[in-house]
Design brief:
Helix content of chain B: under 10%
Radius of gyration of chain A: 14 Å
Strand content of chain B: over 45%
Structural class of chain B: mainly beta
Radius of gyration of chain B: 13 Å
CATH superfamily of chain B: Immunoglobulins
Mean pLDDT of chain A: 92
Distance between the termini of chain A: 40 Å
Largest interface: A-B, 27 and 29 residues
Strand content of chain A: over 45%
Number of domains of chain A: 1
Number of helices of chain A: 0
CATH topology of chain B: Immunoglobulin-like
Largest sheet of chain A: 6 strands, mixed
Structural class of chain A: mainly beta
Oligomer: heterodimer
Mean pLDDT of chain B: 93
CATH topology of chain A: Immunoglobulin-like
Distance between the termini of chain B: 33 Å
Shape of chain A: globular
Largest sheet of chain B: 7 strands, mixed
CATH architecture of chain A: Sandwich
């Protein structure tokens, strides 16, 4: 079975700091990769996705992620965080050959201090 | 509807009771998923429907868990003889496709607490 590791469980940053959240997955074949975000009191929503093509993916609200196949990684980045980015972030992966099964990491709670 | 709707939002059950959790996906979405999210963890796959067909139920933790989607729209997740370890948020998600380009749209979840 696939697994997804998010190394940072809780990150605290000040506004305008840069953000990088790590995500590694175990599956060796072709994968689809996702970052989902859950703002306080809200449901999970898609931040960005990678299916194929340019490994640098841009999402909503200035977020981006880079797929590095050799490192089995899909790290999330944002150059300058805002207080409104306070949320929990989940990395997820599925395989095009078993697309109905998404594997999620345990999540990273980001707290941005104003 | 505009989004995925789940009910009830909160459910408290005594150990041994049966519970039923409802999911109303986005209209026309082919695929429907149930996930279980324990405290401090990411969502874990339970089961998947394509229209009314349950194509994968490998994530259901025991035979006390049962899901159905009889008409290919609304789905119900039923848990019989609830146990304390069943306490979790149960998430429903739907997708417009049944292909590798699945993008999940989640509901707000049903938080089950078993006393």
């Amino acid at each position: 079975a696939q697994s997804v590791s998010q190394h940072n469980h809780h990150v605290i940053l000040s506004e305008a700091a840069s953000l990088e959240l790590g995500c590694n997955y175990s599956y060796g074949g072709t994968v689809n990769l996702f970052w989902y975000v859950q703002y306080p009191g809200q449901h999970l929503q898609l931040l960005l996705k990678y299916f194929s093509g340019d490994p640098l993916v841009k999402g909503i609200k200035g977020f981006e992620a880079e797929f590095i196949k050799s490192k089995f990684s899909f790290n999330l980045r944002k150059p300058s965080v805002q207080w409104s980015d306070t949320a929990e972030y989940f990395c997820a992966v599925n395989s095009p050959y078993n697309f109905n099964k998404f594997y999620f990491g345990s999540g990273t709670k980001l707290n941005v201090k104003p | 509807g505009a989004g995925v709707s789940q009910s009830p939002r909160y459910k408290v059950a005594k150990r041994g009771q049966d519970v039923a959790l409802r999911c109303d996906p986005i209209s026309g979405h082919v695929s429907l998923f149930w996930y279980q999210q324990a405290l401090g963890q990411g969502p874990e796959f339970l089961t998947y429907f394509q229209n009314e067909a349950q194509l994968d139920k490998s994530g259901l933790p025991s035979d006390r868990f049962f899901a159905e989607r009889p008409e290919g729209s609304v789905s119900t997740l039923k848990i019989q003889r609830t146990q304390q370890e069943d306490s979790a948020v149960y998430l429903c998600a739907s997708s417009s496709t049944g292909s590798g380009a699945n993008v999940l749209t989640f509901g707000a979840g049903s938080r089950l607490t078993v006393l």
